[in-house]
Design a protein that fits this description.
Layout: H1 3-23, H2 33-41, H3 48-58, H4 64-76, H5 85-105, H6 110-119, H7 122-128, H8 134-154, H9 157-173, H10 178-193, H11 199-222, H12 243-247, H13 250-269, H14 275-297, H15 311-322, H16 327-345, H17 349-352, H18 365-375, E1 379-383, H19 391-408, E2 414-415, E3 426-431, E4 445-451, E5 454-459
Parallel strand pairs: 1-2, 1-3
Antiparallel strand pairs: 3-5, 4-5
Helix pairs in contact: 1-5, 1-6, 2-3, 2-19, 5-6, 5-7, 5-8, 6-15, 8-9, 9-11, 10-11, 10-14, 13-15, 13-16, 14-15
Length: about 450
């Protein structure tokens, strides 16, 4: 088998594995609380105005993602069984997008290592099975970078148009996408010093930046603001930079971080430095620095999932600098990264579920509602912590999901708050995420059932 055929075969197996682990058991868990919000907001039974109002009552991000999800439900039916396939689709598409980006940057086998690292990245796989904006955000940011470099290389207008459209969508998905835009601008200033001028790109980025500033300024006047529960990272964050979350464990994360630092030292020790590595270094630094600085000056805003796109520069820098090393050194580091990635991956539930029962991590709504239905006490109340922000919106979102499960499973359940004249026993549905795990209720407790991240308390 010649080298080219062998490389294609390996690449095919890597991509196949990446797709498999994103699709396998995607609907094993019920929805968790943030997914329930998305499911409620994107319900096509609501008008656009009602949907947007619901969005405003719970979300801090723009409406675009929930609007697109609403269209998806309009086309394929409103069901939690197909809900997560949007995230799955964009996560799989991201494998190809990052692979093509790597291939565009350098014509060597670094793209195979890039594809391997993204296909088996446990953080990306985990978010691919959650119906939130983050997998979609990752794809659009990655594809925006892809067409940015395609334009720099070929100067074709069709690449510029695609870059503008994709970048425009990305900032309407999440405000943190502006970090990528700022990185483009900073990198173009560096190219300007080298007499490489791209006037059309400057104009496009200026238009996008002005739109971003105006849109988010006006949006801020009516939005909920930043989440109040986010805390500014503690000192130990600076020894890890979310690497433990991105790569699966603290040990594996620290080793990835040390390898990255080692490779950057090698990169800066060379006289001839590849310009594109500088861009990814800028993006990586900005992804951490800008949210942290904002948090110190105003309100904390940084979370690992908010800067999910930082994995793009990390994976590109790791893979591309490695392939500039001498043969023996290159093989050693590649083997180390492969062993670390696979070694950690086989300890994760994503892999272990292929040969044994999968553990449950999200609230067991379906099981709980079926237990209520069997009890012959059909009335329930959604318990929400007193004075919780957006209490009524959360009650509506959870009730929407409960009604959907009930309809799907032919359950005969009744929301006590929507009933009149009933004085019998009531099931209090206590979701840990909305009650800080405090499920205390007043009155006589007849029965108390504890499920994963959910408690059912029959009271009288």
């Amino acid at each position: 088998m010649n080298t080219t055929i062998k490389s294609v075969y390996i690449l095919f197996l890597i991509i196949l594995a990446g797709i498999f682990f994103r699709v396998y058991n995607v609907n094993f868990d019920d929805l968790w609380i943030d997914e329930i919000a998305t499911f409620w907001i994107s319900n096509p039974e609501y008008s656009i105005n009602e949907s947007f109002k619901n969005h405003r009552s719970l979300e801090q991000t723009p409406y675009l993602f929930n609007y697109l999800t609403r269209i998806y439900f309009k086309l394929f039916g409103y069901s939690d069984e197909i809900f997560r396939y949007i995230s799955v689709f964009f996560s799989i598409a991201s494998i190809f997008s990052l692979m093509f980006l790597s291939r565009t940057l350098e014509n060597n086998n670094s793209y195979i290592l890039v594809t391997f690292l993204i296909s088996f990245n446990i953080f990306l796989i985990s978010h691919s099975q959650e119906m939130r904006v983050y997998s979609t955000l990752f794809f659009f940011n990655c594809t925006s970078i892809l067409y940015f470099f395609k334009y720099l290389k070929n100067n074709k207008n069709n690449y510029l148009i695609l870059f503008f459209f994709i970048s425009f969508v990305s900032i309407l998905l999440h405000p943190f996408s502006f970090i990528v835009i700022v990185s483009f601008v900073s990198y173009l200033f560096l190219l300007l010093k080298k007499k490489r001028i791209f006037k059309k790109l400057y104009i496009i980025l200026l238009i996008i930046s002005l739109f971003f500033i105006m849109y988010y300024y006006l949006d801020a006047l009516n939005s909920l603001g930043v989440p109040t529960w986010i805390k500014q990272p503690e000192l130990k964050f600076f020894t890890n930079f979310y690497s433990s979350k991105f790569f699966g464990s603290r040990l594996v994360g620290v080793l990835h971080l040390l390898i990255l630092i080692y490779l950057l030292i090698i990169f800066f020790s060379k006289k001839n430095k590849k310009d594109y590595i500088i861009f990814f270094l800028i993006l990586m630094v900005y992804s951490y620095a800008l949210p942290l600085v904002y948090g110190y000056l105003f309100d904390p805003i940084i979370l690992a999932r908010y800067i999910i796109f930082v994995l793009i520069p990390i994976i590109i820098i790791l893979s591309h600098i490695i392939f500039d090393l001498k043969s023996f050194q290159k093989k050693i580091i590649i083997c180390l990264l492969v062993i670390l990635t696979i070694g950690n991956f086989i300890t994760e539930e994503t892999f272990k579920q292929t040969y044994k029962s999968r553990s449950i991590y999200k609230p067991e709504f379906s099981k709980g509602l079926k237990l209520i239905n069997k009890s012959k006490n059909f009335y329930y109340n959604i318990k929400i912590k007193k004075n919780l922000l957006y209490e009524e919106a959360w009650k509506s979102a959870v009730d929407n999901y409960i009604l959907h499960i009930s309809k799907k499973n032919n359950l005969n359940l009744m929301n006590y708050s929507k009933s009149e004249g009933y004085n019998g026993p009531i099931w209090e549905i206590c979701i840990h995420d909305l009650n800080e795990k405090n499920c205390y209720v007043e009155g006589q407790i007849i029965e108390h059932l504890k499920l994963n991240r959910l408690e059912l308390i029959l009271t009288k």
